[in-house]
TrEMBL record:
Residues 128-250 form the NlpC/P60 domain. This is Cell wall-associated hydrolase, NlpC family. The lineage of its organism: Bacteria, Bacillati, Bacillota, Negativicutes, Selenomonadales. Belongs to the peptidase C40 family. Residues 1-25 form the signal peptide.
Length: 251
């Protein structure tokens, strides 16, 4: 190999180190990862407008949330894990600046639901004699795939799935997980839940960001981002540490 080629290779390597750009290789990064690649990831997410308070090269819950938000905004399957598709999108990403060229989005008017008034917050909303119908409806959609923003049996996201199941039984609940978390009465323990109650988790952002319907015996049904509508256990290694709490909605 000629000295000229070697010298050119060294210059390219130095340029890469100085610019601090994301590596061309695409390492898979997830919660628990650490090192230089994570540090570059955090800096890039910050530079394009995603909130990370500590840039330390450690892939923690805050970085996972920022990755999930970036995936959501770029229509990448929301996992919180940095895969090839996420790396490629990050390399192309630029911070959005509102101004002459880009009009700032206008607030969207609240839609009036065709199902009637919303169920009240902080109170039970589900008659005990309707629990069986709710669970039966929920189970009938097992296997439906996940899609962010999905609200129909073609594809659901977690809160869209709950809203649809309850609407099929004449109960109108809010659209998002954080708003659904205002329903019912908070339980201090999962042992106080009864079938038909709601369960909530903290995943890609603080607070209630994932939800499901409690089935009893520590089982819940939900629209998971990885495998669509399915039944999982509250004691699962993934869900147990992310469990935010249950809301008792059965009268």
């Amino acid at each position: 190999m000629s000295k000229r080629i070697l010298r050119r290779g060294a210059m390219l390597s130095l340029a890469f180190m100085l610019t601090g750009q994301l590596a061309l290789a695409s390492p898979t990064l997830q919660e628990g990862s650490h090192g230089h690649d994570v540090l570059l990831l955090q800096k890039k997410l910050q530079s394009v407008g995603y909130s990370i308070s500590t840039v330390d090269g450690v892939f923690g819950a805050e970085t996972e949330r920022a990755v999930a938000e970036f995936q959501r905004d770029n229509k990448i399957r929301i996992t919180g894990v940095v895969n090839n598709a996420t790396w490629r999108a990050l390399q192309k990403a630029k911070k959005v600046k509102w101004g002459i060229d880009i009009e700032k989005p206008k607030p969207q008017p609240k839609k009036i639901s065709p199902q009637g008034p919303l169920a009240p917050n902080n109170a039970p909303i589900l008659a005990r004699n309707k629990v069986g119908a709710i669970i039966s409806t929920a189970r009938s959609y097992i296997g439906v795939p996940y899609a962010f923003g999905g609200t129909t049996p073609k594809a659901f996201d977690c809160s869209g799935y709950l809203q649809y199941v309850f609407a099929q039984n004449g109960i109108n609940i809010p659209r998002t997980a954080d708003e659904q978390y205002k329903l019912g009465l908070r339980t201090s323990s999962s042992k106080q839940l009864v079938p038909g109650d709601l369960v909530f988790f903290t995943t890609y952002e603080p607070g209630a960001s994932h939800c499901g319907i409690y089935l009893g015996e520590d089982q819940f049904i939900h629209a998971s981002s990885s495998r669509g509508v399915r039944v999982d256990a509250l004691t699962d290694d993934y869900w147990a540490p992310r469990f935010l709490g249950g809301k008792h909605i059965v009268k």
